[in-house]
Amino acid sequence: MKIAPIYDPEQRRETPQAEQVDLHVIFLVGTLLWLIPSIAFAAMFFLHGSFHREFMICIWGLIFGISGLVWELYNRHLYRLLALMQQ
């Protein structure tokens, strides 16, 4: 293990460049993945009449996913600009 990069900035490796990412796709896929089990649990609720806490977990996953999509819509320019500034 080399100790020189800790105290000598000249010995450090160059930091990697920031990548352009599209968080819209990530939030959308995650939300759709929460939608599948929530439909299954909703069907179980309507067929059997019993409420499962797993259904609420799926609903919270959908709420967080939709909130992430809304956040991404309003802040897309900020995180894209940050990646461009670091190049």
What is the residue-averaged pLDDT?
Answer: 84
What about the largest sheet?
Answer: none
Report the β-strand fraction as a percent range.
Answer: under 5%
Q: For the record, give the distance between the C-alpha atoms at the N and C termini, rounded to a whole number.
A: 29 Å
**What's the Cα radius of gyration?**
21 Å
Please trace the helix and strand order, writing H or E for each element. Answer: HHH
* Tally of domains: 1
- Principal-axis shape: elongated
Kindly state the percentage of residues in helix: over 70%
The tally of helices reads 3
Structural class: mainly alpha
Total E-strand runs: 0
Question: Uncertain spans, ≥5 residues at pLDDT below 50?
Answer: none
What does this structure look like?
The protein is mainly α and 87 residues long. It has one domain (22-85). It has helices at residues 4-7, 23-48, 53-85. The longest helix is centred in the last third of the chain and has 33 residues, at 53-85. The chain starts with a helix and ends with a helix. The mean pLDDT is 84.
